[in-house]
Write a structure and sequence with these properties.
This protein is mainly alpha-helical and about 260 residues long. It contains eight helices and no strands. Residues about 1-55 have low confidence and may be disordered.
Length: about 260
């Protein structure tokens, strides 16, 4: 992975992961910035020849169809937190998702402020680079864990939901393609000189469009991913499914 232009010194070390996500989920914004304002690029991500789910496309769907909501109907969201099978792994996973939502919302609010002229392009660029880098780098790692660990195990445990997990994997590819476009737009915005105001604003607007698309895709994906996975885990339990922390650590040791 490579960082957004001129921001190598702004990347976050891995050992600050938990601390920073705690800050994000508690909503502790940088006091030196307006309260409304609350990456690295990746290599080319080609969409494979996997089946294209027209009705379940990330940019157009509004939730799962009935055949993929069989467990959600039994375990609606309002019951999750109090359920005895809502274990440590699900609590952590949902906490990470909460951090993505908080940071995505902050980026979205900052972009709206830039478009409305509430903050200068120079100040906006200074603010969004480290936060975007943080979001994109952790999305990349998070999706790898899901694709290689969660999805294969859960899909095998409940074949009726296999199509849903294939959709979620396709979501990851779609999101990473959007990330490539966003990083390109962000680098163009960072490279624009302050001397040419029209160019600066035009590149900023291209970045804002790409950012809004990523956040919209991410919010849809997080909701649907949780609606597919959490009810299944509540029905079966983390340990019987083999996705507890102990199971995860064992698989890491085994390589």
């Amino acid at each position: 992975m490579r960082c957004l232009s001129d921001c190598s010194d702004l990347r976050f070390p891995a050992d600050r992961y938990r601390e920073l996500f705690d800050r994000i989920t508690r909503g502790r914004a940088d006091a030196s910035l307006p309260q409304r304002f609350g990456g690295p690029t990746f290599g080319a991500h080609e969409i494979t020849d996997r089946i294209h789910f027209v009705s379940l496309d990330l940019d157009t769907r509004t939730g799962w169809p009935d055949d993929l909501s069989i467990f959600l109907d039994q375990y609606p969201r309002q019951t999750w937190l109090s359920h005895r099978n809502f274990g440590e792994r699900m609590q952590f996973w949902m906490g990470v998702h909460g951090g993505f939502r908080e940071l995505g919302s902050a980026l979205q609010s900052a972009t709206a402020g830039f478009r409305e002229g509430d903050v200068t392009p120079e100040r906006f660029r200074q603010w969004f680079v480290p936060r975007l880098n943080y979001l994109l780098s952790h999305l990349h790692t998070h999706h790898q864990i899901e694709d290689l660990d969660y999805f294969p195990i859960l899909s095998a445990a409940e074949p009726r939901l296999a199509r849903g997990f294939e959709v979620l994997e396709t979501d990851h590819e779609t999101i990473h393609t959007t990330i490539d476009a966003l990083a390109e737009a962000a680098n163009g915005f960072m490279a624009a000189g302050s001397g040419n105001r029209d160019t600066l604003l035009a590149t900023g607007e291209r970045y804002a469009d790409a950012s809004d698309r990523l956040i919209a895709q991410l919010m849809r994906h997080l909701d649907d991913e949780e609606d597919l996975i959490v009810p299944l885990v509540l029905d079966r339990g983390e340990e019987p499914l083999g996705i507890s922390w102990q199971d995860h650590l064992r698989r890491m040791r085994e390589g």
